[in-house]
Write a structure and sequence with these properties.
heterodimer, A: alpha/beta, Methyltransferase, Methionine Synthase (B12-binding Domains), Chain A, domain 1, Rossmann fold, 2 domains, five-stranded parallel sheet, 9 helices, B: 530 residues, alpha/beta, Ubiquitin-like (UB roll), Nucleotidyltransferase, domain 5, six-stranded mixed sheet, 30% helix, globular
């Protein structure tokens, strides 16, 4: 098995303890850092995302894989050209006002990171103004990702999009929405650019939206 | 409104009662049923998602099966709603004997009216089921027990859907429908006992905070959006006439503890005498929410975990509640699958305790691994290969083929169902661990683990420990305590001092909010694996 294959396996199985060592070994053996990142890690995370969509992998597997990759990227970073691991740009993410649910939003954030985005996580119960402030503070943000788990807080997504429109920032960003009660119909109704049903698809669609 | 004269009207007859109602063209059967007061179960709240609200529609002599929430009425039709079947609702628990004692206010009023055989009534208003007990105020004996599904289910299976309806359309409909059901049940309980409903001096109610708020008509917005706090924990004691459930007597609610821990939990804690427990104990009340309480009389913590309705058979591909025809026990042997079916006969679906047994057996026999993933063909034991089929989310263990099931449709547990069980199990197990950590108590230090509620009472200890809802250390310590919420409500109804005691128990409870608790979130992920 090549070192890159070993790295793939370590990410896939969430072996965070050996990932740094494997990355160092691969670099020492002359593997290209970009190849390690793309073929060893990003591809494997996409594969796990696919499995998650098919219900073959579940939340814990996806989380440990993402954590392992994160650790691997930290080790690899010094060999990569500046910003290569965040080449796709910036995403600001948060669970909307009135909603304290964290886990789904965190999964999406991790998948965005694993796909090559830089993620700014505003946390939970985030008022619309806070998203607007974040966008004003950082004009490089390309995607706003909104999460809601309660049917009662879905409306806060609409309010957030309206606030971004009113601040004159709507043209600059793509807005993505997700969470258990959200549907494509609702996303269309409130003027979001995309809805995805799971974390893996979110990162995939996010990538398509910015490229 | 200008077109109102032009709207066509149609007549729907609901069978078997024959109840007719006129509705506007385009009205859904579900809306018509709500108007007519006919019960059609709609766990998803009428979103067309759960497919549970099937009815037979006869139009021009042709009968078809339709979803009540999707079918729009365009002609005069007859609608047959599914028959109500026997339901396995935990009605009785372990009774604690106490002497009757009505409050001075109530007993004085009874004296004034000269009632000879005063009665009291206790209600456990569950999100899913409502149970009522008619009790002699002189002997403390339960004379009759009545139960039915909570009719608010027409507005959604879970509290959030119902609260949402109340926020959008006002809470009157939801309040009225449950009060009407309670009033009906009072009449039913009285006539079963051959008693006069006007002799009921007090109706004591318990239920989760949302049920309390919807019943009393309190605002629910803050309850179901952050900060998830009740509008009030105490409900005023009012006359039953003012409440609209009886012409005489009074109505009281046990107090809530917080947003997600209501007076039903207070009733459970009264029943188990939390204020007297010398040794640390764990009390679990598993319903749509899993309420967890742990500690001893000096310090106890309560919390609520969003277990979801999987253990009630909802959100599961072949899931059903614990009615006649539900698989409530299951075991896998090298000879195949052995199923226990409520009422005998062919199975119709799987209820919570059956689902738990099946998932535990699947783990033991390698149908799924510890991560919850279905095994590939070559990883399966030979004796099960023929029963596992499909791919991805649809990969499944077939328990009964179409020819062996009551509905003619295959009964199976799918990969997606296993994931639902993992989420429910993880929420409860993580909630329990978080509370015990907060108290610095280990499982081995627990004196007892008490399980209440319908699922808690029928769930097997072995299966609970196999799936890791409770750790192995708990085996041998698990006690089923029946419908402890109902028992506690009865105690508070019979004896005024017990009511006051319940208020104290509620005041002394420490509430732990899990939504923002980091330990809980970490444990929740960890506990998703078996």
């Amino acid at each position: 098995m090549s070192k890159i294959e070993e790295i793939r396996e370590a990410v896939g199985k969430g072996k965070s303890k050996i990932i740094s060592e494997l990355v160092e070994e691969a670099v020492a053996e002359g593997a290209s850092p970009m190849e390690i990142l793309n073929d060893g890690m990003i591809d494997e995370m996409a594969e796990i995302g696919e499995k998650f969509k098919r219900n073959e992998a579940f939340v814990p597997e996806m989380l440990v894989a993402a954590k392992t990759m994160k650790k691997g990227v930290e080790t690899l970073k010094k060999y990569l050209p500046d910003g290569a691991d965040k080449a796709l740009g910036k995403v600001v993410i948060g669970t909307v006002a009135g909603d304290m649910h964290d886990i789904g939003k965190n999964l999406v954030a991790m998948m965005f990171e694993s796909t090559g985005f830089e993620v700014i996580d505003l946390g939970v119960d985030v008022p619309a103004e806070k998203f607007v402030e974040a966008l004003k503070a950082d004009p490089e943000i390309k995607i706003v990702a909104l999460s809601a788990l309660l049917t009662t807080t879905m409306q806060a997504m609409r309010d957030t999009i309206t606030a971004i429109e009113e601040a004159g920032l709507r043209e600059n960003v793509k807005i993505m929405v997700g969470g258990a009660p959200i549907t494509q119909e609702f996303a269309d109704e409130i003027g979001a650019d995309a809805y995805t049903a799971d974390a893996a698809s979110a990162a995939e669609v996010g990538k398509a939206l910015v490229s | 409104m200008e077109n109102i004269k032009n709207i066509k009207k149609h007549t729907i007859r609901f069978l078997p009662s024959g109840l007719p109602i006129d509705v506007a063209d385009g009205t859904t059967i579900m809306d018509a049923a709500r108007k007519a007061g006919v019960f059609i179960n709609a766990p998803c709240g009428g979103d067309g998602k759960c497919l549970k609200c099937t009815v037979e529609v006869t139009s021009d002599g042709v009968t078809t099966t339709q979803l009540a929430c999707r079918y729009k009425v365009t002609s005069d039709i007859d609608v047959t709603a599914p028959e109500k079947t026997a339901s396995k609702i935990a009605e009785s628990g372990t009774s604690r004997k106490i002497d009757p004692l009505l409050s001075e206010m109530i007993s004085k009023n009874i004296e004034i009216r000269g009632i000879e055989q005063p009665l009291v009534m206790a209600f456990d208003i569950g999100t899913t089921t409502v149970v009522g007990y008619l009790i002699s105020a002189e002997s403390g004996e339960t004379i009759s027990t009545v139960s039915r599904m909570n009719p608010q289910a027409q507005y959604g299976a879970d509290v959030i859907k119902r609260a949402e309806y109340a926020m959008q359309s006002g809470g009157e409909a939801l309040s009225r429908i449950i009060k009407d059901a309670v009033s009906d049940m009072i009449g039913e309980a009285a006539s079963l006992a051959g008693a006069d409903r006007q002799n009921i001096a007090l109706v004591m109610l318990a239920g989760n905070t949302c049920m309390n708020h919807l019943f009393m008509g309190f605002p629910v917005r803050r309850l179901v959006t952050a900060p998830y706090k009740p509008a009030q924990n105490y409900s005023p004691v009012i006359t039953a006439a003012e409440c609209g459930i009886n012409d005489s007597g009074y109505t009281a609610w046990l107090p809530n503890i917080d947003g997600f821990v209501g007076s039903d939990t207070v009733a459970v804690l009264l029943d188990v005498e939390m204020d007297k427990l010398e040794k640390p104990s764990l009390i679990l009340d598993i319903g749509t929410n899993g309420e967890v309480a742990a500690g001893d009389r000096n310090r106890y913590i309560v919390c609520s975990t969003a277990a979801g309705p999987a253990f009630e058979g909802v959100g599961i591909s072949c899931g059903m509640r614990a009615f006649t025809g539900a698989i409530d026990r299951a075991e896998i042997t090298p000879d195949g699958v052995e199923l226990g079916v409520i009422g005998g006969g062919k199975p119709h679906g799987i209820c919570g305790s059956g689902l738990l047994d099946i998932v535990a057996a699947m783990l033991k026999h390698g149908v799924i691994d510890e991560s919850g993933r279905f095994s590939d063909e070559d990883e399966l034991p030979e004796y099960l290969r023929a029963m596992v089929t499909g791919d991805g989310a649809e990969r499944r263990l077939v328990l009964a083929r179409g020819s062996d099931s009551a509905s003619g449709k295959e009964i199976a547990v799918t990969q997606k169902d296993v994931r639902e069980v993992q989420l429910a199990k993880a929420a409860i197990a993580a909630g329990v661990k978080t509370v015990l950590r907060q108290l610095r108590i280990s499982f081995s230090q627990l004196d007892g683990v008490m399980l209440s509620g319908a699922f808690g009472n029928y769930a097997s200890e072995e299966s609970l420990c196999t799936v890791g809802l409770l750790p192995r250390e708990c085996a041998g310590k698990i006690v089923h305590i029946g419908n402890a919420a109902g028992e506690g409500a009865k105690l508070a109804a019979i004896n005024y001092n017990e009511y006051k005691r319940a208020v104290k128990i509620a005041e002394n409870a420490e509430y732990l909010e899990l939504a923002t608790n980091k330990t809980f979130q970490e444990l929740y992920i960890e506990e998703m694996a078996f």
